[in-house]
Structures are given as structure tokens and as C-alpha cells.
Amino acid sequence: MPLEPIVYGNLQSYKMYVLPKAKQLFGSYSFRRKSTIKHHSNVQKMLEILALHGPLTTWGIAKIALHNETSGIRTKEKEYRRLLKGRKDRGRHSLGVLDVGLVVVEGKNHDRAPSDVYRLSIHGVLYCLDVLELTNKEIDIMAKHYCHVLPWVFGKWEYLKSIVGNDAYRLKTLANGIFLDNIQVTKLSKFPVFELLTYLSIKYQEHFESIMEKKLAEQLSCWFYTHLFLPSGPKSKPLENSKLKKIFEDKEIKNWYYGFVKESIKFYEDRFTIIKKMGKM
């Protein structure tokens, strides 16, 4: 369990502040693609380890990075601690991954001396999806390690894949934040995607600077499921109604998502009532 409640900014904050800052400090393209700044490569490799192995101490990260070779682990551990917490040189402080919010402390490990256990934050998961060019198989592995962080997406990952197949990996497209602004594509669906996404934005707009992790997970999950009503691309067809209905045969998903839909309906009914009153003035 987390040592204290984990707080982020909402998805708009991620798109407008966290992602640009993270790309500036840690790289906007994957170290896998071509050589990059050493600091960028080191941070990305550390994030990749957390993505594919789940929560770890700095000692655990170093062991995996060095393939369990005992020599050099302590030195590597110190390096990862600097990457996480930043460093202070001559009165100047360079931001670490914790400062930017891509990684959070999840708890304590007492096997050795008490040590912090680190994992990707929700923003960190999105950064990895957008920048690290993870394969679908690697995303499947990350989903298993972070199902408790995103229960409605990663917690239902294998079920969703069994129905929508590769459309589940649209999460990679959503991670770059483009769809938050690209409302015009919602016209491609017969479903009220525009209305649902507009309400979703309004619901969480006051949480730009501060939102609890559970609420951020809810916002991201609603965003993901609503996006499934759209075609995956300009020349693609929307998911078949039979597949969409199949998703909601899971009673937990149905009760949760339809709760969001009912909230949306009430919001628009209330607004419509106000508009009608204006018409009688």
C-alpha cells in the first residue's frame, strides 16, 4: 500500500505539462530507436524495468539492469537513486523522475535495510506507452504488473483483448494526449462520444493541479472505453455493435461505465432545464 495518498494532475495536466516536461528532460523518442543522450537512455531503461517487472527498490532495479551480477550493483543503485530523486550540484537542483511524477513511492521493503519501493505512476505508464515503443507483448506484461493501478483497463486487459483484439492497444495512441483535443473525430461515431467526452472533461476540469490516483484512473478508464466507440483510424470501421455489447456483458464493467453514462445524462438534463428557463425569460 502507498505510504500516503498519491496525487497527480488530471489528464489535461498530463498532456499540457507533465508529458512535455518529461520529453524535455528524459527524451521524446525511445532509446531503442536510435542513440540518444545518455541521461535520457538511463532514465528510459529504468522506466522500462519498472514497466516490465513491476514495483521495485533501487537495489532490485540495479540487479535486473546488471542481470544479477553482484559486482557493481551498489554503484548502479546509487545511480538510479540520483535518477529518481535528482541531484544538487553547486546550489542547483536537477529534477528527478519523482519530481516530474513519472514514478511514485508505493511502500517499504524490509528485506534488507528499510528501502522505498518504486513503481510507475499513471503518468509514468502513459509516458512509457507513448515514448518507449513497447511491443504488444510488453504492454501485456505491464498490464499484469499494474492491474491494481488501472483496474478498469489493465485489470480487465485479457477480457478486453479477447473481444476487441488489437483495438485494446489503442491505449498507446491515447497516451500521447492528442485525442484530448481532437474532438472532431467524434463525428465518426453514431454514439454520443462528443457529449460523453465533453462531460468527462468538465467533470475533472477542477482537478488540473491535484487529483487522487483513483480518480485519475477513473478519468483515464472512461476516456479509454469511450474511445472504443470510435474507429481506430480515418479509414477504419467502428467496432461492431456485437463486440461493444460483449464488453458490457461483464457486470462490473457495465455497472461502472453506465454509472458514468448516467452522470452524463443528468448533467445534460440539468443544463437543458436551464436553457429552457432562459427561453421563457
Break the fold down into its secondary structure elements and pairings.
Elements: E1 7-8, H1 11-26, H2 38-53, H3 58-65, H4 73-85, E2 87-89, E3 92-94, H5 97-100, E4 103-109, E5 115-120, H6 122-131, H7 136-145, H8 157-164, H9 171-174, H10 178-181, H11 193-203, E6 211-212, H12 213-227, H13 241-247, H14 251-279
Helix pairs in contact: 3-4, 8-13, 11-12
Count of alpha and pi helical runs: 14
Percent of residues in beta strands: 5-15%
Shape summary: elongated
Looking across the biggest beta sheet, what order are the strands in? 1-6
Structural class: mainly alpha
Major sheet description: 2 strands, antiparallel
Low-confidence stretches are none
Helix content: 55-70%
Please state the average pLDDT score.
Answer: 88
Query: How many E strands?
Result: 6
